[in-house]
Design goal:
Layout lengths: L1 H5 L2 E6 L2 E6 L2 H10 L11 H4 L15 H14 L2 H6 L1 H17 L7 H18 L12 H17 L3 H4 L11 H26 L5 H14 L15
Antiparallel strand pairs: 1-2
Helix pairs in contact: 4-11, 6-7, 8-10
Pfam family, one: p450
Keywords: Heme, Iron, Metal-binding, Oxidoreductase
Family: Belongs to the cytochrome P450 family.
Length: about 240
Amino acid sequence: MFAKKYGPTISLRIASQVLVVVSTAEAAMEVLKTQDRNLSGRIIPDVLRQTIKDYYLVRAHDCNDCWKSLRSLCRTNMFSVKAIGDQSKMRSEKVAEMMGFLEKKQGKVVRVEEVVFTTMFNTMSNILFSKDFLNLNDEHGTAHWLKLALQKTLQSAMTPNVSDLFPILRGLDIQGLRKDYVKHLNEISSFTDKIIDERRERNSTGAMEALVEDTTTFAIFSGDNSGESRATYRQG
């Protein structure tokens, strides 16, 4: 009904932002499959704008050649069909660890969200770094702190911001979202920096396999593949 009245693709302007709405399966196929590169431009929230570098994989400004190279590294090395298949045993082991932990806690109060978060985080850390970073028995320690820090960071980034609608107000940070985001992002960075430094020290011999893996990992997490120390994020 909507498509018949307005057409399969329409645009809505909300202040300075333009939102494109695709309302039919055919148009969606055209956008997502045929014209995906041309229509893949993304809106960067003002909160994130100060902390994004061109060589970030997840938060890149544009789908440029550098972004494509990093994506290719992920596809061929870290998340290829073979790599995912090889990781199936590790994923099963992590689920078994979680179930074993829950069995030991039978009859006691368990923070399920903390247990699931720790299991998922350790699964990803094993994919990227081949080791656990959180402990299931440390329910109110690092896992709890990291989960809260991630939640607060996402909350600051996802909260509707008047600066996105009216760019002239960006310098004022009226809602204080950018300040909160930078604060929580620095907390998380202090955690990931230790991991990255430890990894670099271990692979200081310069093995090519380690170099390729670490270049991809560092770009995903910190945007830093130069070998230099990471700078603290500051409010712009």
